[in-house]
Amino acid sequence: MNKILQFGGRWRFALGLFLLGVGGPGNIRLHAQGVYTAVPGETSIYSNYDPTAAAPRTPATRTAAPSARRFLPAMPEDQYLARKAEMAGYSRSSFTEPAQLEITPAPHAATTAGPIASAPTTSFPGIPYTTLEPPTPDTAVGPSDVVMVVNSTVAQFTKTGTMVRSVAFQDWFTDVLSGTCPSNCLVFDPWVAYDQLHGRFLFLASVTTLTSRTFSYLLLSVSNGATFATGWKNFALPTFKEGSNTVPYWGDSWRLGFDNQAIYLAGNMFDVNGAFQYAKIRVLKMSDVYNPAATTLPYQDFGSATAKLMNANGTLADSIMPTHQRGMPGPAGVGLLVSATTIFNSPPSFLTVWKIANPLATPLTMTPFNIGGLMPYSVPANPPQLGGQPLNVPDNRVLKAIYRNGFLYTARNSGYSDAATTVTYDVIDTNAMAISSQGRLLNTNAFYPAFDVPATVPLGAQFATASQISGTTTSPTGTLTFPGITNLRSGDGPYVDRFCPPCRWGDYFGGSIDPINGGLWASGEYAPASLGTWATQVGYFPWLTTPTFSDVPSTSPYSDFINVLNLWGITTGCGTNPPQFCPTSMVTRDQFATFIIRSMLGNNFTYTQTPYFTDVPPSSPYFRYIQKLADIGLTHGCTPTTYCPTGPVLRQDAAVLLVRGKLESLFGDSFTYPTTPFFTDVPSTSPQFSYIQKISELGITTGCSATTFCPTNNLTRQDVAVFLVRAFLN
Question: What is this structure's pTM?
Answer without folding.
Answer: 0.93
